[in-house]
Design brief:
alpha+beta; 5-stranded mixed β-sheet; two-stranded antiparallel ribbon; 11 helices
Length: 513
């Protein structure tokens, strides 16, 4: 099951809250337990120990008072002391024992389960002590009766006193045993409480460290989960600045990863759209440039073409006249004919330039019919064979046997091929290899013209199809521009791939018939 981003973050912090809550509950529980332990010792066992100590002190004083009575010689004084003992001693003992039993019963209400048996044992001992004090009261009363008489019977006093001392000794031993048991229990509980407190402290520290670790883990997990958001923000910022090459590459299946992939797709679409708009803008600028240059070229060509025709006609007439004329020497006649030949050659060159200008200014609309592109290419290569051989260029024909026909105007297509062959030949002044290939694509036919010449730089390649741009001395810079214009009119494309020193490859694509 794949959890969403919000769910993962919520679960992470829920784990943190549960962990800290568990630590807090454990701490509160242990604190409550320590409070119970302190109450058991301070308000329970310690109070019982103090009550037992008070009883022991009172019991010791009572024994001394009994010895004083026995030793007192004055009858009236003995009787006064006996009245005081009868009035206060039972009442004080009863109050002390009642307080002790109440403390024991109170301990039973809050003592832990493990202490109930001990507290009940204490309660039983105090009940037994109460019985002993009852017996002590009867024995003491018998001694008081003997001592209150006018004539003391020393034998009877000695017997009563002996029995009383035995009861007092038994009570004293019980009180000391109670104090010893309580003191040992107090030390045991204190030691146990200290050990438990130490273990509890270590447990709380350990659990706190675990809770802190869980919190840090949840924070790191949240930071890692939200890291793509920062990457997404940076990508959006780059897109906002016009950099459409931003690609986030976020992996995963959560919302941020899906959003990042959609963002990457959008960036690629924007980049493609920008490239398309840039190409359209360049094509529009080139078309406007060609239109403007074409209008000027047409006007210039029109103004130059007619005088050139007249000049050419007059040169022919002069040539005919020179053929009939007589010269004093053959050298003069030969020199005059060479001058006329040079004029005729320049007139022909200018006429060819004006024709190129006119073709660029008013390109004829192609008549598209099904043509065998390999046949057209073969005819052009046969036509240019002698020229290429003289330049030392080896031609390699790599025509695919299943090359499909194309929709093209044969005349204009031949013009494009001748321009490309001429450029390749001029790029290899010392000779080289020219490879012409064809292959069929899904909807187009691709023709490549590859030479092993000097190649060109990126700056030159970017301006290669601009009108009047030429790297050759005396070049018009119209051949490739007109060729691209012709292919665009055919619904095809013309592209160039080149590196300095690695040759040049022209790639033509024409629609299949």
């Amino acid at each position: 099951m794949k959890l969403s981003l919000a769910t993962r973050i919520f679960l992470g912090y829920a784990v943190v809250l549960v962990t800290f809550g568990a630590v807090s509950l454990f701490s509160v529980a242990e604190l409550h337990r320590n409070q119970q332990e302190i109450r058991l010792v301070s308000q329970g066992y310690l109070q019982l120990s103090q009550d037992a100590a008070a009883l022991e002190t009172f019991h010791t004083s009572q024994g001394k008072d009994t010895e004083r009575l026995v030793d007192e010689q004055n009858v009236e004084t003995r009787r006064a002391l006996i009245r005081l003992a009868r009035m206060y001693t039972p009442q004080l003992i009863s109050q002390r024992l009642s307080t002790t039993r109440a403390t024991a019963r109170d301990i039973l209400t809050y003592a832990p389960e493990s202490e109930l048996a001990f507290v009940r044992e204490l309660e039983t001992r105090f009940k037994e002590l109460e019985k002993q004090y009852t017996a002590h009261g009867r024995t003491a009363e018998a001694v008081f009766t003997v001592l209150a008489s006018d004539q003391l019977d020393r034998a009877q006093v000695a017997a009563s006193t002996t029995e009383l001392r035995q009861v007092e000794a038994s009570i004293g031993r019980e009180l000391r045993a109670l104090r010893t048991i309580l003191d040992n229990r107090i030390r045991e509980r204190v030691d146990r409480a200290e050990e438990h407190e130490r273990r509890t402290g270590l447990a709380i520290i350990t659990l706190s460290l675990v809770a802190v670790g869980v919190g840090l883990g949840a924070t790191l997990l949240s930071a890692r989960t939200l890291r793509p958001v920062r990457t997404l923000i940076e990508g959006v910022s780059r897109i906002g600045k016009g950099d459409y090459t931003a690609q986030l590459g976020v992996q995963g299946e959560d919302e941020v990863a899906v959003l990042a992939r959609e963002f990457d797709a959008m960036a690629r679409s924007l980049q493609a759209r920008e490239s398309q708009l840039k190409a359209q803008a360049e094509a529009l600028a080139r078309a406007e440039q060609l239109a403007a240059v074409g209008r000027i070229s047409a006007q210039v060509a029109h103004e130059v073409r007619n005088p050139l025709s007249s000049i050419g006609l007059n040169v022919e007439m002069i040539g005919d006249a020179l053929a009939r004329a007589s010269f004093s020497t053959e050298e003069e006649k030969h020199e005059a004919q060479e001058l006329l030949t040079a004029v005729t050659r320049e007139v022909d060159r200018l006429t060819d330039v004006t024709e190129q200008y006119l073709r660029m200014a008013r390109p004829p609309k192609p008549t598209l019919v099904s043509e065998d592109v390999t046949e057209v290419l073969g005819g052009v290569l046969d036509f240019a064979r002698e020229e290429l051989e003289r330049a030392g260029v080896e031609v390699v024909r790599n025509f695919a046997p299943d090359t499909p026909p194309v929709l093209a105007d044969e005349g204009q297509l031949r013009q494009v091929f001748l321009n490309l062959l001429r450029n390749s030949r001029e790029a290899m002044p010392d000779g080289g290899r020219l490879t012409v290939s064809t292959r069929g694509l899904e909807k187009e036919v691709e023709i490549t013209v590859q030479d092993t010449g000097r190649g060109m730089t990126e700056v030159v390649r970017e301006r290669l199809f601009e009108p009047f741009f030429s790297t050759k001395e005396g070049g018009t810079g119209l051949g490739l521009s007109v060729s691209q214009q012709i292919l665009q009119a055919h619904g095809g494309t013309l592209a160039c791939q080149s590196q300095p020193g690695e040759g040049t490859t022209f790639v033509l694509r024409l629609p299949r018939a």
